[in-house]
Structures are given as C-alpha cells and as structure tokens.
Amino acid sequence: MPEYVTVAKVADVPSGERIVVEVKERYIAIFNVGGTYYAIEDVCTHDDGPLAEGELHEFEIECPRHGARFDIRTGKALSMPATQDVERFDVRVEGDDLQILI
Ligand code: FES
Fold first, then answer.
1. Is the distance from the beta carbon of residue 52 to the nearest atom of ligand 1 less than 6 Å?
2. pLDDT at 85
3. pLDDT of 100
4. For the chain, domain boundaries
5. How far is the CA of 47 from the centre of ligand 1 (A)?
6. Which string of DSSP letters, residue by residue, matches 29-84?
7. Other beta carbons within 10 Å of 83
8. Architecture of the domain defined by 4-101
9. Over the chain (102 residues), what is each successive 10-residue block's mean pLDDT?
10. Is 63 in the pocket of ligand 1 (CB under 6 A)?
11. pTM of this prediction?
12. Which atom, in ligand 1's list, is nearest to the CA of 47?
C-alpha cells in the first residue's frame, strides 16, 4: 500500500531547485517550481538516464543522455526517444517535512 514518507525538509528544496532522494529502493526527483513541488522517478524510460541532472524548461525536464522530455507534473513522455511515461508521485508538506506518496 502506498503511504506518505518523509523524504526531506522543505528547506532542502528552495524554489527553482531539485533534489534526488532514495525511497523504498527507488530514486525520486523532487522539483520546486515557484513553491509547488513535483516528484517523478529519476530514471528515464528510454535508457535509465538520470532525469534530475537535465535542464528544466518550465515544467519539462530534458534527459541529459539523449534529450527525451517529460512533464514533471504528470510524468508524461513528451518527445522521442522516450515512449513510456515515468511514474509521478504526490507530494505534500507536513510542517517542515516534504513527503511523497509511495
Ligand atoms: S536515457 Fe533518457 S533519452 Fe535516452
């Protein structure tokens, strides 16, 4: 059953920043865009590239390996060479903690 898990402090992810956390043996990228948090799996569906190391264009993260783009709000694959979406996770703030549903 998915549950909310504390993965970081709110202060760890200022606006415009991102971090990668390991939770339940998975790597999750958490982004703060203008005070709203988004979380997706940090593994490109094309060939396992580390998405959080890519450039963020508004809500699109570009894989640093071959340039596939994903929407960090939905996990949707937006361009080749990726054809499968990445998983996205709900994020919530509890006091000073950032939690994701995983
Ligand atoms: S590993 Fe991400 S585009 Fe190839």
1. no
2. 98
3. 97
4. 4-101
5. 5
6. EEEEETTEEEEEESS-TTT---GGGS-EETTEEE-TTT--EEETTT--B-STT--S
7. 10
8. 3-layer Sandwich (2.102)
9. 95 96 96 97 97 97 98 98 98 97 96
10. yes
11. 0.95
12. 1
